[in-house]
Write a structure and sequence with these properties.
Blueprint lengths: L1 H7 L5 H13 L10 H6 L14 H8 L3
Length: about 70
């Protein structure tokens, strides 16, 4: 996933890319636990997201527009 995010954004900055991968994994539904990992761990939906991080808004918008 990290390679894909970095390739799609023509980036070598894995420190930024890993935050996207972490967010995607934490909010993806898992059939085995019947929840997202975040919800299973904290018993609530995430209150923030990448928009509350220090990642530049244009990078977040570019990634969100792919969905």
């Amino acid at each position: 996933m990290l390679i894909s995010v970095m390739s799609d954004n023509n980036s070598q900055d894995w420190v930024v890319g890993i935050k996207f991968v972490q967010q995607m994994k934490n909010v993806s539904y898992h059939a085995g636990i019947k929840h997202t990992p975040y919800t299973a761990m904290f018993d609530t939906e995430p209150k923030g997201g990448l928009t509350s991080s220090s990642i530049p808004a244009e990078i977040i918008q570019r990634l969100e527009s792919r969905d």
